[in-house]
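Progress report, Aim 2. The chain analyzed during this reporting quarter is listed below.
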Amino acid sequence: MRDPEKLLVYQKAHALAVRIDGVWAQKTKRRRADLVDQLTRAANSVSSNLAEGCAHSSRREFARFVQMSLASCGEVAHHLKFARDTRAISIELFADLESACREVRRMLASLLRKVRDELTETDDDESIAAMQSRRFKQRHDS
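Predicted structure tokens for the chain:
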């Protein structure tokens, strides 16, 4: 099991979700509640999927959840553009949040490449714990 808090991309994704939520929490009048809800949920999904992926012991499962985080990041980017184009947020705020989203997206893509490059044939369904147990037995049976 991995600790998601140790991943810089998790920290940045979580911070982005908190910032996005804070944009509307400061406003007294909730304009476009549907957009706000969808954007906030998508932003939270990025770090949530990373945290869930870290709880899996299989590298292949972790890669799958990193991919889902990347997809959620794409959804955030879309909702931010929509919010900008419908004037729900200012162009300046859009630029700031979109830049943070782009950074998280680049980091996720890099992490996904790294995890996929490290996958081996034994990573199909076998957990890391199972591999470690097998290696321990092999060393002690010799």
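The mean pLDDT is 82. The chain has five helices and no strands. These observations will guide the mutagenesis work planned for the next reporting period.
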